[in-house]
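Duplicate of #3305? Posting structure anyway:
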């Protein structure tokens, strides 16, 4: 749809420009035919022919040279445009009734208004309008051509408005680019948080448990088991880091496989089962939706390990016609909670991730346990 709108706007712009150019050519030819003196190969008529040729040559060269901002030919191009306007003035002085050729000087004036600093462009335009008015008063029987003066004034206002619009568009583009950078930073921050919360916090739980067992002369086999679990979590954390880097490159894991891996990691770190159920017809999800499902399940299971030790977990993924639903529930903790450092931003990050793709996240108690419910369009 956006491409169609852009193509339509380009067509309308080209149509308007084409109509203006056609009108200018008609006015130019008509002015030459009705000019007094008429074009000739001698005298004033020859001067008209030469001035027309010079004006068009200077105008074309000035518009072409220095089109790119910062080009070394920009200065010479501006000089050529000023000379083209001056040649148009001389042509108007010779034949003030033949204003058709002067229409093309308006194109040069427009380009000058776009290329020169604003105050200098407006100054050139004001001087041009004043010169046209003075020449009209001095040379035309009816005085200054008010229609031509109005056309120059309208062109000046239009060029200034177009210039300000271009500046506003550039500012908008820069703001959008800055917002995109901030969004990407937030994305990376969420990924880093998910990895740390999923891996390091669980390691802290096991290491703290091992420390308590050893400090109280507890079962060294249990302490060793805790340390081995922490080691396994460190390994899985490295693997998860690799997966996160792949995700940042756009390589999104398939949700069913990722959920099965998370369930295995949950069992390996807690010794408690985590059942995974998938209902509906599985289909390929968008990268954003797939990532939201995987990261939400990961964060929810991490929270179960941290805040509900001893609990069993249930993960349900439903493929519905217009959306995908994820439910992560637990049966409630049966062991004492070991405090670990870091408040975390898990729920906030999950909710932000869902809202970015027009999804919803609902969390709250579910019997003796807790429920995390995600819905995303798909």
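Output from current build:
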């Amino acid at each position: 749809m956006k491409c169609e709108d852009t193509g339509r706007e380009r067509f309308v712009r080209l149509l308007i420009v084409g109509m203006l150019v056609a009108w200018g050519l008609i006015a130019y030819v008509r002015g030459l035919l009705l000019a007094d003196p008429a074009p000739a190969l001698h005298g004033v008529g020859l001067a008209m022919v030469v001035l027309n040729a010079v004006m068009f040559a200077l105008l074309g060269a000035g518009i072409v040279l220095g089109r790119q901002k910062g080009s070394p030919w920009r200065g010479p191009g501006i000089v050529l445009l000023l000379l083209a306007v001056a040649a148009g003035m001389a042509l108007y002085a010779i034949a003030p009734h033949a204003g058709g050729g002067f229409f093309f000087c308006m194109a040069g004036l427009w380009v000058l208004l776009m290329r020169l600093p604003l105050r200098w462009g407006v100054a050139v335009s004001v001087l041009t309008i004043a010169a046209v008015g003075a020449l009209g008063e001095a040379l035309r029987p009816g005085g200054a051509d008010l229609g031509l003066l109005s056309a120059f004034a309208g062109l000046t206002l239009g060029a200034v408005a177009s210039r300000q619009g271009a500046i506003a568009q550039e500012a908008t583009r820069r703001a959008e680019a800055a917002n995109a950078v901030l969004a990407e930073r937030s994305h990376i921050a969420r990924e880093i948080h998910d990895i740390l919360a999923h891996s390091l916090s669980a390691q802290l739980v096991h290491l703290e448990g091992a420390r308590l067992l050893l400090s109280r002369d507890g079962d060294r086999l249990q302490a060793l088991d805790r340390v081995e679990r922490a080691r396994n979590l460190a390994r899985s954390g490295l693997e998860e880091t690799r997966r996160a880097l792949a995700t940042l490159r756009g390589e999104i894991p398939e949700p069913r496989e990722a959920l099965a891996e998370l369930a295995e990691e949950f069992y390996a770190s807690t010794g408690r089962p985590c059942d995974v159920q998938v209902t509906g017809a599985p289909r390929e999800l968008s990268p954003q939706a797939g990532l939201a499902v995987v990261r939400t399940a990961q964060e929810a299971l991490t929270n179960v390990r941290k805040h509900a030790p001893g609990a069993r977990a249930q993960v349900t993924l439903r493929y519905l016609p217009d959306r995908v639903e994820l439910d992560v529930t637990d049966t409630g903790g049966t062991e004492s909670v070991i405090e670990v450092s870091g408040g975390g931003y898990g729920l906030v990050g999950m909710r932000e991730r869902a809202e970015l793709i027009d999804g919803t996240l609902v969390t709250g108690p579910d019997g003796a346990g807790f429920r995390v419910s995600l819905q995303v369009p798909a």
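Confirmed duplicate; merging threads. Residues 338-345 have pLDDT under 50 and may be disordered. The two ends are 20 Å apart (CA to CA).
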